[in-house]
Model the fold of this input.
Amino acid sequence: MAGTVFKQCRYKGCQRSPRCKHPWWLSFSKHGKRHRMKADDFAKKPVPMKAEAAEIWLPKFITEIREGRDPTRPPDLFPENGITTVGDLVPVYLERHCS
Done:
């Protein structure tokens, strides 16, 4: 895996300190396209340590990208039915829950 974990700090002293309050970022390149995302957003919880970001969340981030999913987009709730709007959902809901 060739991904990296880093912080985007403006000040060198802050960037070198593991205790700075800026979030950790996950980065991975595939076919010349760089994918980056805050570790906190990907994990859906605060990730305070670089070791946790590198050992747990970076491999999961890379797997998502390699499998063709975009981790920056929320997952589709009903991809199998092609439901994209509330108008599409209402008939399915009525059929499943009101019949």
Remarks:
- The mean pLDDT is 82.
- The helical segments are 12-16, 39-43, 50-66, 86-97.
